[in-house]
Design a protein that fits this description.
globular; two-stranded parallel sheet; 6-stranded mixed sheet; Alpha-Beta Plaits; alpha/beta
Length: 261
Amino acid sequence: MNKKLNLLYFSATDTTARVVKEVGKAISDEVKEYDITLPGTRQEKLVFGCNELVIVGVPVYAGRVPDFLIDYFEKVKGNNTPAIFIVVYGNRDYDDALLELKNYFEANGFIGIAGGVFIGEHSYTTKVATGRPDIDDLKTATKFGMKIKEKLNGIEDCTQTKKLIVKGNFPYKERKSMPQIAPETSDKCIKCGVCAEQCPMRAIDFNNFKDIDVTKCIKCCRCIKGCPVEAKSINNETLNKIIQALVDNLSTVRYEPELFI
């Protein structure tokens, strides 16, 4: 089964991108990437045909697919297009995110071939799932890609494949409302503009980098991790308690990837 490979992913802190690319590399050397992390990349409609293969990768936000991505995914259509679904979570739980991702894409003309769950360093703290995906995770991603390639080679008509079953519940876990907070900017700021340019939600003012719209901020921490002088940080009592609970309960726990194929 020779399919043109496409990678479609949102990856604010690069963990999801690393996993998706590693899986894709094991399937084909020729790929087309759709990095939908920045808002300008989430405007156009995408249509994939039956002779294409799509790997979709998203981070897990509180056990769900990020809600703003659900709105965008309405613009992504398939035509009996085989797809691989990948979610990356910060070492707590992925809950219903993989099932939710699969259901949305299958409802839009895609056929699930495989699903993968991987772990990435938590966006709030480097003390939870530190450095992940690590070497072992990426080796697992490579083997996953090889198994998918083998499966595809044995399929003549993907519409006749057995329905993909993954973990998750429906109705999905209720979305939690997070406090409306945003990173603060210290006097170390050199006004380089990287934070504003790289914000996935255009929440940072291009003229005043200290001005961040809390109603748009998704607390992905891309601006914090990407600042060359470490001028951005979040200092909020509610969020600090959440971070401390994550560290207390999960900093010494190692979960492994889960694969469905």
